[in-house]
Design goal:
Blueprint (H helix, E strand, L loop, with lengths): L3 H10 L6 H23 L26 H10 L3 E2 L2 E2 L7
Antiparallel strand pairs: 1-2
């Protein structure tokens, strides 16, 4: 069975405050989940045959295409926010 300290550590990482009763219940639940994974590891693996040849999943190579100035200008003009000829987008990294 998973140790009480391990459950408390996982709860701390998840920023959860657990009561003693919840910790005991989670010990049992997590142990059951891990036992099930062990059972799945022992299961025989089946070969799955697909209807499609593997080549259908091949992807084409990326290639740069030079767009004409009118197309670029039309795309930038259509953007809701722009700055100095570029499309402004929301920052995702801070």
């Amino acid at each position: 069975m998973i140790k009480k300290e391990e459950v408390e550590h996982i709860a701390k990482l998840a920023r959860l405050e657990l009561t003693e009763k919840e910790i005991e219940r989670l010990q049992k639940d997590m142990s059951a989940i891990l036992d099930y994974f062990d059972l799945l590891k022992k299961a025989p693996r089946l070969e799955v045959k697909t209807k499609f040849p593997k080549t259908i999943f091949d992807q084409r190579e990326d290639e740069a295409v030079q767009a004409d100035a009118d197309t670029v200008e039309a795309l930038v003009d259509a953007a809701p926010e722009k700055d100095d000829g570029y499309i402004k987008v929301k920052s995702i990294l801070q």
